[in-house]
Write a structure and sequence with these properties.
This protein is mainly alpha-helical. Helices cover about 70% and strands about 0% of the residues. It has a two-stranded antiparallel ribbon. A hairpin with a 2-residue loop joins strand 1 and strand 2. Helix 7 packs parallel to helix 9. It is elongated and about 55 Å long.
């Protein structure tokens, strides 16, 4: 920031404080500036704020982690998705996970597709459709078993038959791709 020939530098701590403010514009502006730094402490700061009690801050942290796409954020995002306190807000965390290296997360993504909120299911289905998974036949079978177990449940989502067809189709594609890679 320039003021009458003097340059005022805002510190990282001041940016973090602005990110945590109740003012959306300040939070958004601070997030953009923090993202430019792209260092481990910034990634850790956003990861820590996935646990913030303020939903706005949680969602802003997830959005920032989506942009950073640091593998350090994969497990914390999965933890945020599994956290029962976030039950109705998991879509943003799954959306953030899409830009990360999720190739080893087939089972976790299938579970989200089967059990998540509508928004989380859609993001998980997009990940399954992309088919960027490194897996083996045992894991594919485990994923198919999850689908079969879902059919036996009493409580299913609306139009679950469409969901199961989609997941089954994506699993078949993933299985085929992995077989082709091994040849």
């Amino acid at each position: 920031m320039e003021t009458r020939g003097f340059t005022l530098k805002i510190t990282v701590d001041e940016l973090k404080a602005k990110f945590l403010s109740k003012d959306f514009e300040q939070c958004s502006s601070a997030s953009k500036q923090l993202l430019k730094l792209k260092n481990i402490s910034i990634v850790d700061f956003f990861i820590e704020n996935l646990k913030n009690r303020n939903r706005k801050i949680q969602m802003s942290a997830a959005s920032a982690l989506r942009k950073l796409a640091s593998d350090r954020a994969i497990q914390p995002l999965l933890n945020a998705i599994k956290n029962t306190n976030n039950k109705n807000y998991t879509g943003s965390f799954v959306y953030a996970l899409q830009t990360h290296n999720y190739q080893d997360l087939l089972i976790a993504i299938v579970k989200i597709a089967l059990n998540g909120t509508y928004e989380a299911q859609n993001h998980a289905l997009q990940m399954l459709a992309d088919g960027k998974f490194q897996t083996d036949s045992d894991e594919i079978e485990q994923a198919k078993s999850l689908v079969r177990d879902y059919v036996k449940r009493k409580h299913k989502c609306d139009n679950y038959d469409i969901l199961l067809k989609e997941i089954t189709r994506y699993l078949s594609r993933i299985e085929k791709k992995n077989k082709e890679k091994k040849k």
